[in-house]
Each structure stands twice: as structure tokens, then as C-alpha cells.
From TrEMBL:
<keyword id="KW-0472">Membrane</keyword>
<feature type="transmembrane region" description="Helical">
    <location>
        <begin position="82"/>
        <end position="104"/>
    </location>
</feature>
<feature type="transmembrane region" description="Helical">
    <location>
        <begin position="397"/>
        <end position="416"/>
    </location>
</feature>
<keyword id="KW-1133">Transmembrane helix</keyword>
<feature type="transmembrane region" description="Helical">
    <location>
        <begin position="43"/>
        <end position="62"/>
    </location>
</feature>
<keyword id="KW-0029">Amino-acid transport</keyword>
<dbReference type="InterPro" id="IPR004840">
    <property type="entry name" value="Amino_acid_permease_CS"/>
</dbReference>
<feature type="transmembrane region" description="Helical">
    <location>
        <begin position="153"/>
        <end position="174"/>
    </location>
</feature>
<comment type="similarity">
    <text>Belongs to the amino acid-polyamine-organocation (APC) superfamily. Amino acid transporter (AAT) (TC 2.A.3.1) family.</text>
</comment>
<feature type="transmembrane region" description="Helical">
    <location>
        <begin position="356"/>
        <end position="376"/>
    </location>
</feature>
<feature type="transmembrane region" description="Helical">
    <location>
        <begin position="422"/>
        <end position="442"/>
    </location>
</feature>
<feature type="transmembrane region" description="Helical">
    <location>
        <begin position="18"/>
        <end position="37"/>
    </location>
</feature>
<dbReference type="GO" id="GO:0006865">
    <property type="term" value="P:amino acid transport"/>
</dbReference>
<dbReference type="InterPro" id="IPR004841">
    <property type="entry name" value="AA-permease/SLC12A_dom"/>
</dbReference>
<feature type="domain" description="Amino acid permease/ SLC12A">
    <location>
        <begin position="15"/>
        <end position="445"/>
    </location>
</feature>
<keyword id="KW-0997">Cell inner membrane</keyword>
<dbReference type="GO" id="GO:0055085">
    <property type="term" value="P:transmembrane transport"/>
</dbReference>
Length: 452
């Protein structure tokens, strides 16, 4: 697998580390976790722990392959190399599609977040301003993207840590108010108010919170010294899961009765508002807006690199291979921004109704990407063994971890069919794969005719 010379390795170690920490801390955690809390109650903590363990295993598999082959195509290139061209085609186009839909979601979420201050401001205006700002930033060069994402990620991580620290102080009575203790998870139906079934069902919404976590793989092609920086970034995933996801959600269910949560407001903001800490709620809402912009920034970067990689592999129009003097794939970037910009129109036509639809689509698309990474790693490790090569950075529990992850993802698809908001996405999932397979054969047939 050749190293891509069209891009520039201007992403420093600190950039990669912070992007690894902040790549998926966005709408899913800050806004979408309210649905998971409704479904499982305080036991949602276990849901995040279970899903987090699976995601950690999957990310270690991606990290092992990325250290050996640090290319911007990432898991699409690995699927193409280790499973076959068709798998690479499906994986690449699916991830590209995911970045577009996630971008649309974050643009939509930005409008919802602005409702906190300006309930009468049309969502499409917020979406348009965010789109233009991020597009201009990404057109500069990868260093500008990386530096901006570093500080955006730093802000949301700092705010989340502060929220956890303050929450612990409130629970333990280290503030002027009486200690809350564990009352909110021992009362109101106890720790398991919805039973085991609630934990299982909540896993679908919880997985959405981890969406985009694999986007660090597409940064490998533009990272300085990937053999050293990538393992450190991937290893940080376990701490990110423990502190930010499990720690953050634990504080939420400790500070406020779980049945007070809803899907229209961030559970973090609602909790602070319920406690009467209005100024903190305002500050946190600013951070949540920053988080949405951060994830949109990452999807804009990652999607343009994936589209370029597909073009380099002969699986997308050749015009998307071009980069400018600063190493930016301008055509791919502008094309993606045009498609993500359709969220502006959708928010104008269907304001307030597309958020849950986009979330359901994203969960299904992420299942395809994550499954592809797991299967590619199986094939990769077998090839390495055949060649007598020992990877310098190894994923644990191979191959049991691979089969465990695949079984878990299959279970999630089944669970999606049990939830009204996700049923259509579960039905569309195999149809989407079949459509990509059909497109692959149509493209092959067209290529044969062109040669003839």
C-alpha cells in the first residue's frame, strides 16, 4: 500500500492527540444521550460501558492497521486491500455518505442549540453561517484545520471535565447546598427502572454518541511520524470513554432524576438549569455549540479525504484526486460542502423534524464502517502471519475480539427494528448495501465498455 504524496504531513502530535480526544464528543453525547437515559434510566451508565468496550476493541484494530499503513483512505483502503475491491467500494462510499449525513446533523443541531438564546431564529440561518465558516477554514490548509480543531476540542473537553468536577462536588456536598448523594439513582425506580431490556434498547442511542470516533484514521495520511503519534492517540480512547462518556453520563444521572430528561434539550444543560445554575447552563450551551462545530469541522475534513481516496482507487470520478499547492483536495471539499449544505434547505423546509431521522441513518451507516474495520483486521492479521511479519502495535484478544464485535453490531441492527424511530433505518441498511453493490457492478460494466 503506497503512501499518498498529494497530501502534506502538517498534523502535529498534539493535533492528533486532541482530535483523538474530541473527534466524537459532539451532538451524540451532549444532545442525543437524553434518549438513552429515557430508555435505561441510571443503568445507562452500564450501556455506555458495554458500548465503550466494543468501540475500544474496534479502535485498537483500526490503530494496528493505521500504524502499518498510514493513508488518508484509512478503513476504506484497508477493506479494499485486505477484503477486496468491492468491500473497499462499499466501505469508502458508506463512510463518505456518513460524513455528509453527520455534517447535515451537526448543522441542524447548531440551530437547535441556538434555540436556548434565540428561539425565533430560523435554524437554516445558523446552519448556513456554520457551513461557510468551516468551509473557508478547511480551504486554507490541513494545518489550519488541525489547529482550529485542537482548540475546539480543548474547549469542549475542558468544559466536560469541569462539569464532572463540579458535579462530584455537588453530589458529595462540597458546595453550600446539601449533598445530593446517590438519591437520584436509588430512588425514582432504582438503578434499573427499565430492566435489562432498557439497557439493551438504549445501546442503539448510546452507539450514536460514539459516531465519528473512527475519523482519526483518515488523519493518518497527514500526521507527522504516524508510527509514534497514532498509537498514543488510539490508546487514549480508553481514557476518553471512561472519563468523558461514562463519567459525564454518571454525573448527569446523579444530579437530576432520570425521568426529567427529554430528547429536545441537552441533558447536561437541563440538569444545570434544574439545579438553578443558570449561568453555568448558558456557558455549557456555548460549549455544546462549539462541539457541534468541531464535529462538523472534522466531518468536512474526513469526508473530502475519503472522496479523494475513492477517486485515487478508481472508485470515484478522477477529478476529485486533485490537490492544490497546499495539499488541500479543493474539488472534493467543495463538492462535499455543497451536499452538506442541503441541510440548510432541509431546515428551511422541515424545521425541527429532521434531527431524529438523521440520527437513525447515521447509526446504520456507522455499523457498516465499524464492521468493515473488524473484518479488515481479521484479514490483515492473517496476511501478516502468512508473511511472517509481526505488527509493531497489536490489537488485544484477536480473533475473539473481532467475532465479539461483529456479533454485537448484528445485535444492534436487530434492536433497531424494535424502535419506532430506527425501524426505517434498519430496513434501509441492507437496501443501501445492495444499492452500493449494484453501483459497483454498473461501474465495472461501464469500465469494460469504455476499454472495448
Amino acid at each position: 500500500m503506497e503512501i499518498d504524496e498529494g497530501l502534506q504531513r502538517k498534523m502535529k502530535s498534539r493535533h492528533l492527540q486532541m482530535i483523538a480526544f474530541g473527534s466524537s464528543i459532539g451532538t451524540g453525547l451532549f444532545l442525543g444521550s437524553g434518549a438513552a437515559i429515557q430508555q435505561a434510566g441510571p443503568a445507562v451508565i452500564l450501556s455506555f460501558a458495554i458500548a465503550g468496550f466494543v468501540i475500544y476493541l474496534m479502535m485498537r484494530m483500526l490503530g494496528e492497521m493505521a500504524v502499518e499503513h498510514p493513508v488518508s483512505g484509512s478503513f476504506s483502503a484497508y477493506a479494499r486491500t485486505y477484503i477486496g475491491p468491492l468491500a473497499g467500494f462499499i466501505t469508502g462510499w458508506n463512510w463518505w455518505f456518513t460524513t455528509i449525513v453527520v455534517g447535515m446533523l451537526e448543522l441542524t443541531a447548531a440551530g437547535t442549540i441556538m434555540d436556548f438564546w434565540y428561539p425565533d431564529l430560523p435554524h437554516w440561518i445558523t446552519a448556513l453561517v456554520t457551513l461557510v465558516l468551516v468551509m473557508v477554514l478547511n480551504l486554507v490548509h490541513v494545518g489550519a484545520f488541525a489547529e482550529t480543531e485542537f482548540w475546539l476540542s480543548f474547549l469542549k473537553i475542558a468544559a466536560l471535565i469541569l462539569m464532572i468536577v463540579v458535579g462530584i462536588a455537588i453530589v458529595l456536598g462540597m458546595t453550600p447546598e446539601p449533598a445530593l448523594g446517590l438519591s437520584n439513582i436509588t430512588e425514582h425506580g432504582g438503578f434499573f427502572p427499565m430492566g435489562t431490556y432498557g439497557i439493551l434498547i438504549s445501546l442503539v442511542a448510546v452507539l450514536f454518541a460514539f459516531g465519528g470516533i473512527e475519523s482519526i484514521g483518515t488523519a493518518a495520511g497527514e500526521a507527522e511520524d504516524p508510527a509514534e503519534t497514532l498509537p498514543r492517540a488510539i490508546n487514549s480512547v480508553i481514557w476518553r470513554i471512561l472519563v468523558f462518556y461514562i463519567g459525564g453520563i454518571s454525573i448527569i444521572v446523579l444530579l437530576s432524576p432520570w425521568e426529567h430528561m427529554d430528547t429536545a434539550t441537552s441533558p447536561f444543560v437541563r440538569t444545570l438549569t434544574t439545579l438553578g445554575i443558570t449561568s453555568a447552563a448558558t456557558g455549557l450551551n456555548i460549549i455544546i455549540l462549539v462541539a457541534a462545530m468541531s464535529v462538523f469541522n472534522t466531518m468536512t475534513f474526513s469526508g473530502s479525504r475519503m472522496l479523494r481516496d475513492l477517486a485515487l482507487g478508481g472508485q470515484a470520478p478522477n477529478l476529485f484526486t486533485a490537490t492544490n499547492a497546499k495539499g488541500v483536495p479543493v474539488r472534493a471539499l467543495l463538492f462535499n460542502c455543497l451536499l452538506m449544505g442541503s441541510a440548510v434547505l432541509l431546515n428551511y423546509l422541515f424545521e425541527g423534524r429532521i434531527l431524529i431521522i438523521l440520527i437513525a441513518i447515521i447509526v446504520g451507516a456507522e455499523i457498516i464502517s465499524w464492521s468493515s474495520i473488524v473484518i479488515s483486521h481479521l484479514k490483515f492479521r492473517k496476511l501478516m502471519k502468512t508473511q511472517g511479519h509481526e505488527p509493531s502495535y497489536r490489537a488485544p484478544l484477536y480473533p475473539l475480539a473481532n467475532y465479539f464485535c461483529l456479533a454485537f453490531f448484528a445485535m444492534i441492527v436487530v434492536l433497531m427494528t424494535r424502535l419506532a424511530d430506527y425501524q426505517q433505518a434498519a430496513i434501509a441498511l441492507p437496501l443501501w448495501v445492495l444499492a452500493l453493490v449494484a453501483l459497483w457492478f454498473v461501474r465495472k460494466a461501464a469500465g469494460r465498455r469504455a476499454k472495448a
